[in-house]
Specification:
globular; single chain; mainly beta; binds copper (II) ion; Immunoglobulin-like; 3 domains; binds CU-O-CU linkage; 6% helix; 7-stranded mixed beta sheet; 514 residues
């Protein structure tokens, strides 16, 4: 099958997607815990806990020089067997979903050359990356499709267009952390990620390697997200413009967010993972467009297995925190250790979503297969943690539903995303106090540098706020304050809501570091 045919086929299937799915609920603010409306798949869903948990393949550098690693990643259409026996067209980095994991080391720059063989422009963003502005994935720095650049030129007014291939440079000066990369094209991030453009990018360093944490096969990245399927097996997505060319956003019932009824972990529906009776490190990423997860580990006839959280979005915590459950909003990461030696061999430990209903309440299962030697441990001190103390500057960012001109969407400080106007010019090196104010749930994400949560409502930081964060779960009617400091890279960046439907419907703002 030629690439060209395959592309046309993909668009055709996309066009069919919004039809043939039923709308669940009544278009309100959505099921418990999430802001959005759930789609119901039009194909029979497989029983849970049958498919083995896949681990995304690790990208191989095309050229590992003495000082840096170079990668070539091709964005292309492919067909994946996500539900057993059903072919689903995806847009994938190297044609796979999740994309290949990039393994990076602090102090060793990574250069990724992307090639776009998709029918639409793309923008690659390293989420959580301390990245110079020209490689951050400014939403208008489009990478146009190979051999299909006509018609996109007018988009070049506020961005830097590249045709066919584009290089992104990641200096990798930051601490070890679980990052991820995903598409970030203005107005069309949500469908691009939904159709598969997301992958892990893990930064390691010597300080973390010196700790006796579980590693090797006992370290698992878990990309958790929800999707729904149309009758023809394609991903169902209620886009206003299924060709992803002109009109951003989704049909009105899904305006608050698109939720699916199938939970995928590393691209497999409700998978099962066979484990030793030993400690495992799980790098949990909520890569959903809009769904929040309340994760817990159920054990039949016994109390839940706890998570020992060791890291958050931007690296290790100062000290581990034992938590009965973990609430994760879109874009957030939680690095946890689970000790499967706490239950008898033969036990099935089920990771559930206490914020989901029906099929969305199931996530995945661990089957404890055998006793095994375990030399790992979770030390009481994990990392040095600098505490940011904000200076006098206070900025307030208000996230709410709003209108501009004839449009209804989502706004920050009453305005829609304007790539030409910075709403905050922030001096590099200064610690500022930022206040986030909201109507409904908004996972707030800031590019370039991580922040620390100072207070949530009238209390201190919540359980999900520990450590260095780049994405924050802002809950209805809540006020959250953070301390933030940008360093090193002056330029144009964004802050935005990581509910991707909100982001595409304008809940993004230009900021500048100066
Ligand atoms: Cu994960 Cu601006 O994105
Ligand atoms: Cu980001
Ligand atoms: Cu939002």
């Amino acid at each position: 099958m030629s690439a060209r045919l395959d592309r046309r086929g993909f668009l055709g299937l996309l066009g069919a997607s919004a039809a043939g799915v039923a709308l669940a609920g009544c278009g309100g603010w959505g099921p418990r815990g999430s802001t959005g409306t759930q789609l119901t798949s039009a194909v029979p869903l497989p029983p849970p806990y049958q498919v083995p948990l896949p681990v995304p393949l690790v990208a191989r550098p095309v050229n590992a020089g003495a000082a840096l690693d170079r990668y070539l990643i091709t964005q292309r259409v492919a067909r994946a067997e996500i539900l057993p026996g059903i072919r689903t067209p995806i847009m994938g980095y190297d044609g796979v979903f999740p994309g290949p994991t990039i393994e990076a080391r602090r102090g060793r720059p990574v250069v990724v050359r992307y090639r776009n063989e998709l029918p639409v422009p793309t923008v690659a963003h390293l989420h959580g990356g301390h990245t110079p502005a020209d490689s951050d994935g400014w939403p208008l720095d489009l990478l146009l499709p190979v051999g299909n650049t006509a018609g996109w030129a007018r988009h070049g007014m506020v961005g830097d267009l590249a045709a066919g291939e584009r290089e992104y440079r990641y200096p990798t000066t930051q601490r070890a952390a679980t990052l991820w990369y995903h598409d970030h094209r203005m107005d069309f991030t949500a469908p691009a990620v939904y159709f598969g453009l997301a992958g892990f990018h893990i930064v390691r360093d010597d300080a973390e390697d010196a700790l006796p944490l579980p590693r090797g096969p006992r370290e698992l990245p878990l990309m958790i997200c929800d999707r729904a399927f149309a009758a023809d097996g394609s991903f169902a997505y209620p886009a206003l413009d299924p060709r992803m060319r002109e009109v951003p956003g989704v049909e009105p019932p899904w305006m608050a967010g698109v939720l699916g009824d199938v939970v995928l972990v590393n691209g497999a529906p409700w998978p099962v993972c066979e484990v030793d009776a030993a400690r495992y490190r799980l790098r949990i990423l909520n890569a959903s467009n809009a769904r929040r997860f309340g994760l817990a580990l159920r054990v039949p006839g016994a109390p839940d297995l706890p998570f020992t959280q060791i890291g958050s979005d931007s690296g290790l915590l100062a000290a581990p925190v034992v938590r009965p459950s973990v609430e994760a909003a879109p874009g957030e990461r939680f690095d946890v250790v689970v000790d499967f030696a706490q239950v008898p061999v033969g036990t099935e430990v089920t990771m559930v979503n206490s914020l989901g209903e029906g099929s969305a309440a199931d996530v995945m299962r661990f089957r404890v297969m055998r006793s095994a030697r375990d030399d790992s441990a979770v030390p009481e001190r994990l990392a040095e943690q600098e505490v940011l103390v904000p200076g006098p500057t206070l900025r307030t960012f208000q996230f709410e539903r709003g209108r501009w001109g004839p449009h209804t969407g989502w706004t920050i400080n009453g305005t829609a995303f304007d790539p030409t106007t910075s709403i905050a010019d922030i001096p590099l090196g200064e610690v500022e106090r930022w206040r986030f104010v909201t109507d409904v749930h908004h996972p707030v994400h800031v590019h370039l540098d991580a922040f620390q949560v100072l207070r949530r409502g009238s209390g201190g930081p919540g359980p999900s706020d520990a450590g260095w964060k780049d994405t924050l779960d802002l809950r209805p009617a809540e006020v959250v304050e953070v301390a933030v400091r940008f360093t090193e890279h002056a330029g144009r960046y964004v802050l935005h809501c990581h509910n991707l439907e909100h982001e595409d419907m304008a809940m993004m703002a230009t900021i500048r570091t100066v």
